[in-house]
Amino acid sequence: MNSIDAVTLEVADTTAAARFYSTVFGLDSSQVRLRASEAPTTGFRGFTLSLVVSQPGNVDAFVGAALDAGATALKPTSKSLWGYGGVVQAPDGTIWKIATSAKKDTGPVARDFEELVLLLGVEDVKASKQFYVEQGLTVGKSFGGKYVEFATGSGPVKLALYKRRALAKDAGVPADGTGSHRLVLSSAASPFSDPDGFVWEATAPLTATA
Q1: Quick one: which H or E segment has residue 165?
Q2: Is the pTM of this model over 0.85?
Q3: In Å, what is the CA distance from 175 to each residue of 29, 90, 99, 170?
Q4: What does the alpha-carbon distance between residue 102 and residue 85 come to, in Å, rounded to a whole number?
Q5: Which pLDDT score is estimated for 207?
Q6: Per-residue CA distances from 74 to 111, 146, 171, 187 (Å)
Q7: How far is CA 114 from CA 54, 117, 139, 145, 148, in A?
Q8: Predicted local confidence at residue 62, as pLDDT
Q9: How far apart are CA 80 and CA 83, in angstroms?
Q10: Cβ contacts of residue 208 below 8 Å, gap of 6+?
Q11: Could you tell me which of 37, 81, 83, 150 has the fewest CB atoms within 10 Å of its CB?
């Protein structure tokens, strides 16, 4: 495999989740799929999804729309050394970060994004990096044992690896968590699970309920 074909979130209410992601983030099943699940999970699920946008005004627009639609603020929007961003938790429990490297707006504010990024929180970045390279992914950026970003390929979602505790801190939540990740990844490869229990399955065709 050389990319993620699909990201599937396992949620209690697929209709409500589909409405939230379509209305707030403008996402459809070509980017994020949904699957009904009551699998037990507590605390941090070990991953975050990020929308990378072009300017701070777009961050505020996305975060404001998410909060109005029932999301919870985990980290209020703020400036930092790297740019501007905020973190929210969707009603289904998925953590989303909306961020930009820009320091000021350069155009009209809009709810559109440049990249959709999945960050997996892993215990050993180097070991997980090697595992995914062996599955066929190509490293785009690597910062030792702290962070790895893979080349996107033809997929709609960029995959990156981050230390679990560092990712939880970045998301504004405790690192502890048990149970299901409530996340399934799809690719052209045969089904497998990675060292941290993230499940991959063979890509299935889109359906009306995906």
Answers
A1: helix 164-171
A2: yes
A3: 29, 18, 21, 10
A4: 10
A5: 56
A6: 20, 23, 7, 31
A7: 7, 10, 20, 27, 19
A8: 98
A9: 5
A10: none
A11: 81
Query: In terms of DSSP bridges, do strands 158-163 and 147-150 run parallel, antiparallel, or are they unpaired?
Result: antiparallel
CA–CA separation, 129 and 149 (whole Å): 9
Short-list 42, 31, 64, 2, CA closest to 182: 42
3-state secondary structure of 53: coil
3-class DSSP state of 29: coil
Burial class of residue 6, CB neighbours in 10 A (0-12, 13-18, 19+): buried
Q: Mean pLDDT of residues grouped by 10 in the chain (210 residues)? A: 89 97 94 95 97 98 98 96 95 98 95 96 97 94 93 88 97 96 91 96 66
Burial code (b: 16+ CB inside 10 Å, e: under 16) for 28-54 equals: ebebbbbeebeeebeebbbbbbbbbbb
Which residue in the block uniquely carries the two structure tokens 């070509």? Answer: 30
Report helix, strand or coil for 162: strand
52 forms beta bridges with 99, 115
Sequence-distant (6+) residues with CB within 8 A of 130 are: none
Domains of the chain, CATH where assigned: 6-202 (3.10.180.10)
Place of tokens 């980017």: 31
- Give 182: exposed, middle or buried? Use CB within 10 Å, 0-12, 13-18, 19+: buried
Rounded distance, CA 29 to CA 34, Å?
A: 8
